[in-house]
Amino acid sequence: MLNVVVVLVEPETPGNVGFAARVMANFGVSELRIAGRDLRTEPEAKVFSVHAIDVLESARVFTDLESALEDLEATWAATARAGRNHSVTRAVVPLEDLPNPLALEGKVGLVFGRESNGLTNEEIGLCDLAFTIPTSDQYSSLNLSHAVAVVLYDLFSRYAPKREKEFTEARAATRDERERVCMHFDAIIDHLNVKEHKKPIAKQVFRNLLGRAYMTGREVTTMTGVVRKLHEKLEESESDKN
Length: 242
Description:
There is one protein chain. By secondary structure, the protein is α/β, with parallel strands linked by helices. The protein has two domains: 4-159, 3-Layer(aba) Sandwich (Alpha/beta knot), CATH 3.40.1280; 175-241. Helix content is 44%, strand content 13%. It has nine helices and seven strands, in the order βαβααβαβββαβαααα. The radius of gyration is 27 Å and the shape is elongated. The model has no long low-confidence stretch (mean pLDDT 88).
C-alpha cells in the first residue's frame, strides 16, 4: 500500500511511534509523518520499531498538522465515537466504509491523534473525512499503535493486491477428503456395540465436528489413515472371533 501515509499528531510516547513504524512495515506502508515533537531518535522508539527501523528513521517531521497534510490527495482522520467529550460536527463513517485508498492517484493520509485525547475538532476539520474504529461501548479508546494496526490491517485485507499462493501454504481439506474419513468412521460405529438409533447421531456429530474445524489436506489424510487402521483392526478382531 505504497500510496498510504500514516500521520501521527503530537505522539506522546516514543514506544508507540516505534510500534507504529513496525506495524506499517507489516502491511506494506513505508511513509510515516509526525506533526509535533520529533521522537524518532528516542531509544524506546528505535527498540520497538525492531526491523522497521528504516520506516522510523525516514519519517518526516512537521511543525503542525496542516503542513503535514499539504501535499496529500486525501486525508482521513481517526477519531473516537462522535458525541463524546470532543464532539465532531461532521459525519463520521465506520472503518469498514472507508473507500479503497489504492484507487486514488495521489497519496492518502491516515491521521491519528494523541494518546491522551486524540485529535481536536479543528484538526479533524483539516481532513476530508473522519472515521471511527468499532469498539466495545464499555471502553472505546484504543492505544495509538493498536489503532494504526487495526486500520492498516483492515485496508490491507480488503484492498491490497492478492499474492499468489505459495507452494508451502497449507491447503484446506476438500469435501472428498473429509468424506473418506467419515466413511471409515461410519464403519467403526457400525461395528461397535451401540444402540441402533444412536448410530446415525454419532455419525452426524463426527461430520459436524469436521465441518466446523478448519483442517488442512495433510491433517485429514493423516486422520484418514488412523481411522482406517482402527476400522481394519475391528474387522480383524471380529474375524478372529468367528
